[in-house]
Amino acid sequence: MNYKAVLLKQWLDKAEIDLKVINILGRNKSAPASAIAFHCQQAIEKYLKAFLGFNEVAFTKTHDLSILLALCLQKERAFKILDRNIIADIKLYAVNPRYPGEEYEPSKKEINDYVKAVKQVKLLVVKLTK
């Protein structure tokens, strides 16, 4: 396996862990919505970084999904199908809600939108990296 394929697999494996956590938390009615949102953000970040790494696009160490998505769009116009507003909303869960004073519990609709976005990003990245 070449370096690009190994790197892709590593990023995808990490994203899949977040997706598993999303699914587990989603089945638990008492799970905090902010925890699900955090793992949605993490999964999308890793899927985008998988695409960028596979395509040898340099990126800085960032949790900002808008920056990562912009880099993906420069390489592949197919990323236009993603809802940039939802991606921008999800990026807020990377760091802030993990600290006191920054808590916010997203609505059920927001969580549904975030989980849908994770699945869209996953399908797109997997398709574009085959």
In words, what does this structure look like?
This protein is mostly helical and 130 residues long. The protein has one domain (3-128): Nucleotidyltransferases  domain 2 (Four Helix Bundle (Hemerythrin (Met), subunit A), Up-down Bundle). The chain has five helices and no strands. The protein has helices at 3-27, 33-54, 65-75, 84-90, 108-128. The longest helix is centred in the N-terminal third of the chain and has 25 residues, at 3-27. The radius of gyration is 14 Å and the shape is globular.
Give the structure's gist in a few sentences.
The chain is mainly α. 66% of the residues lie in helices and 0% in strands.
Secondary structure: elements and pairs:
Blueprint: H1 3-27, H2 33-54, H3 65-75, H4 84-90, H5 108-128
Helix pairs in contact: 1-2, 2-3, 2-5
User: What general outline do the C-alpha atoms trace?
Assistant: globular
Oligomer: single chain
Structural class: mainly alpha
Can you tell me the CATH class?
Mainly Alpha
- Distance from N terminus to C terminus (CA atoms, Å) equals 14 Å
Q: What value does the Rg take, in angstroms? A: 14 Å
* Major sheet description: none
Count of alpha/pi helices: 5
Mean pLDDT, nearest integer?
94
What is the total domain count?
1
> Approximately how much beta-strand content do the residues carry?
under 5%
Q: What is the number of E strands?
A: 0
Series of secondary-structure elements, N-terminal to C-terminal: HHHHH
CATH superfamily: Nucleotidyltransferases  domain 2
Unreliably modeled segments: none
Helical fraction: 55-70%
Could you say what the CATH architecture is?
A: Up-down Bundle
CATH domain topology: Four Helix Bundle (Hemerythrin (Met), subunit A)
